[in-house]
């Protein structure tokens, strides 16, 4: 027992640094997921606004009597912006899916701790 206390007191700095690094890693991953979710929501809102403006522009062109929408510069700009936003959303979602959700990681139990493993191995307790 004394050896454990002495060892822990000698290496308290190392133990503290290890704990802080583990906690900081989890916090960093959570904050990355949070910021990515915020960016994705913002891009969805921008996409919805551009979609509405696209519909309004098509409606205005229909009222003017124009049937060829491909020559309209405003519609072309809106389509280019929509494509850019869709690519950004896909990129952010890919990054977000690549991150590990830190609270869903299941730790493995030691074989000696579970009674089910004893039954599988034929050991009686």
Features:
125 residues; mainly alpha
What structural class is derived from the secondary structure elements? mainly alpha
Q: What summary fits the major beta sheet?
A: none
Report the helical percentage.
over 70%
Query: Spans of 5+ residues with little confidence (pLDDT < 50)?
Result: none
The number of distinct helices, counting runs of at least 4 residues, comes to: 4
Tally of DSSP β-strands: 0
Shape: rod-shaped
Proportion of residues in β-strands? under 5%
The succession of helices and strands, N to C, reads: HHHH
How widely separated are the two ends?
29 Å
State Rg.
29 Å
Query: Mean of the pLDDT scores?
Result: 80
Q: What would you note in describing this structure?
A:
The chain has helices at residues 2-10, 12-64, 73-98, 115-121. The longest helix is centred in the first third of the chain and has 53 residues, at 12-64. The protein is rod-shaped. 2% of the residues are buried. The mean pLDDT is 80. The protein contains 4 helices and no strands. It has a domain at 33-98. 76% of the residues lie in helices and 0% in strands. With 125 residues, it is an all-alpha fold. Helix 2 (12-64) runs antiparallel to helix 3 (73-98).
